[in-house]
Amino acid sequence: MRYVKGMMGFFGLALLGMAPLAGFADVPPSMVEVVSPKVSLRLVEDWWQWAESVPLEKSPIQDETGADCAQDQQGPVWFLAGGYGTSKIHRACTIPAGKSLFFPIINMVYFPGPGSTPLNFTCADAQEYAELDNDTAMDLFASVDGVSIEGLKRFRVSTHDCFDIFARLPEDQQPYSGYPSATDGFWLMLKPLSKGRHLIKFGGRYNSSTPDYGHMIQDIEYELTVE
């Protein structure tokens, strides 16, 4: 069995009283909108299938500079990556205008390793493993150009039905069946940002007793140029 990390009803952006950062676009509340992914739960599965579809040497999650942020991006939603395990990463990249942004503040995925899953292992079992650390998530944060987003715990999402994390790989490249895979965590979706430079920060930490990821900390920063 294996744990790995990575980060729609409508919500307006909840803001704290912070000034936008110098050199980045002004972000009045009317110009940035946060969208809960709850209406489109498929996005959390898509994100993980995207993450596992890119070869490790080009993985946007392994990437420490932003050089690989455009790998295998498809459709109207642009995925931003967190990091595997405890991660403090600054990335800079250019993205096309008109793309919504979707990313994990902090999250977990569970999927079976080859030959390690009991025959009676169910989707419910996978979901239970995926949610363990998120029950203890704390110090969640996310901001756009220095303006903080509040109430992040309302953005917790877990898969209702399990999926195969390797499904986006060509069939002849799939190492084995990744079903049942399940994910649980805190996610944000932003409507498209204006053209120009934007600074997005997100992360949080766990405080659980589970091995490996029980005290994982995510601290991710993206310097985006939208054009």
What's the helix and strand layout?
Layout: E1 2-5, E2 10-11, E3 34-35, H1 42-53, E4 77-79, E5 87-95, E6 100-111, H2 123-131, E7 138-144, E8 147-148, E9 156-158, E10 182-190, E11 196-205, E12 217-226
Parallel strand pairs: 4-6, 5-12
Antiparallel strand pairs: 1-6, 2-3, 3-10, 6-10, 7-8, 7-11, 9-10, 11-12
Oligomer: single chain
Largest sheet: 7 strands, mixed
Give the helices and strands as they follow along the chain.
EEEHEEEHEEEEEE
Number of helices: 2
Strand content: 25-35%
Number of strands: 12
Percentage of helical residues?
under 10%
Shape: globular
Mean pLDDT equals 84
Structural class: mainly beta
Q: Give the terminus-to-terminus CA distance.
A: 42 Å
Q: Which residue ranges are poorly predicted, with pLDDT under 50 across at least 5 consecutive positions?
A: 1-20, 27-31
Over the alpha carbons, how many angstroms does the gyration radius reach?
17 Å
